[in-house]
Amino acid sequence: MTTLTCCNYIDGQWLSATQTLLSRNPTNNEIVATFPRSDSADVDVAIASARKAYRSWRQVPAPARAEYIFRVGELLLQHKEELAQLISREMGKAITEARGDVQEGVDCAFYSAGEGRRLFGQTTPSEMPNKFAMTMRMPIGVCALITPWNFPVAIPCWKAMPALVCGNTVILKPAEDTPACATKLIEIFQQAGLPPGVINLVHGLGEEAGKALVEHADVDLVSFTGSSETGAFVGETCGRTHKRVCLEMGGKNAQVVMEDADLELALDGAIWGAFGTAGQRCTATSRLILHRDIKEKFTTMLKERTSKLRLGSPTDPDTDIGPIINQRQLERVKMYLDIAREENAKVLIGGEIADEGELKNGYFFQPTILDNVTPEMRVAQEEIFGPVVALIEVSSFEEAIAILNDTNYGLSSSVYTRDINRAFAAMRDIEAGITYINGPTIGAEVHLPFGGVKQTGNGHREAGTTALDVFTEWKSVYVDFSGSLQRAQIDNRS
Ligand code: ADP
Questions:
Q1: In this structure, are residues 4 and 171 in contact, taking their beta carbons and an 8 Å threshold?
Q2: Ligand 1 site: residues with CB under 6 angstroms?
Q3: Catalytic annotation present for 246
Q4: Which atom of ligand 1 is nearest the CA belonging to 150?
Q5: Nearest C-alpha neighbor of 244 from the set 155, 118, 159, 150
Q6: Taking residues 378-400, what's their average pLDDT?
Q7: Which SS3 state, helix, strand or coil, does residue 181 take?
Q8: Is 181 a catalytic residue?
Q9: Which of 284, 318, 449, 474 is deepest in the core (most CB within 10 A)?
Q10: 491 pLDDT more than 70
Q11: What is the arithmetic mean of pLDDT over 28-46?
């Protein structure tokens, strides 16, 4: 297949760079694209372009800004298959999931664009006569969007679309593994006719282009999704340089299966949650907390179904599980299997790199079930980001919830039970940003808040109307039409 040439997109121009990097297809290692290894000088130009465009973009009425995003949504629909094929090729997720990745961008476009005609503020009575009080959402300015490879279209859309509707200008720094997906996406924004400088694309390494963006004095906000380690750096730097910051980091999501659950339903959920996208979702199910009364039966069912999952090329419709994103990540998954064995977890199925036949050309890992896992083990605490699920046995609902909560993370969670009282107790007591009852840990919808508690995030939520809280600040406005000085914060009533 042809090698694509990706460029930076700055001030409405596609610009190449002197140094380039390569992205590869994780299924067969073919080169997918060359892309710029941008340095701080490239970042400076992109920020200057976004700053210049901000002056006029913020003045464009929000419904008119939103019109561009509606057009992006329509274009995404038109180019859905082409984009999905590219996602499967460059990132490796199964083609049906790749289509879902694009569809999420479409949903986000139409949802965010609808906000152009809302962006509601409030009016409220003043404490004084002949005085009017209201609140307005204000854009923040130049936003750096730093994104990972696992949702190469959906996550940039989640960030860019509400940011733009709110009147900000943006610079996207996509992950090194998926530059071609990001480039195609930005081409669509360009086709939608966005004015130059409103959306910019800067490719490159995290420690170079990414770091330069985060440290730059003329960036007002950073929205980051990625690893906890990088998130700590981003948060610390933004704190020091007084930037707004939204962080979306790791998870160690659990699905609880109680003794009264519909086991077939719970099984479908567990397979999809643990092995969908080869376990490379921040909401992936990496722990299954099983009541002891059903543990043996459920484990047998799980093992049998797992043994039937087919690894292979993501564009083959028969494939259940595609590759791991790259060699480094594959080795990391393997390292966690070594840790699991040292910790005396039992590998029930899988546990190895899959390299038979065609698979040897890519980065495949067998779907893996670890049994005899106890809550304090590293494989029960640390994010693995691969097709590996740890089974933990419990004796009661209370114990299940306590173990579910016993991690530093708090993104997604799930409980399978037919007991309504337990379901409501779970909603109340689980420490997570997302809780599913009788559904798997994955499957967020764009009009609900997305994000996590504890070390998963920093208190913000993406998607939903909550995205507006990331990308705007409130202004309180008082209009005094009394014609005289009315003094607040003075006791007028004495
Ligand atoms: P992953 O383990 O998923 O690659 P990272 O946190 O390393 O997670 O990467 C997520 C995004 O953060 C990528 O776009 C990457 O280039 C970027 N990134 C990595 N390191 C830094 C850094 N020091 N400063 C800013 N961005 C970074």
A1: no
A2: 146-148, 173, 175-176, 206-207, 210-211, 214, 226-227, 230, 233-234
A3: no
A4: 3
A5: 159
A6: 98
A7: helix
A8: no
A9: 284
A10: no
A11: 97
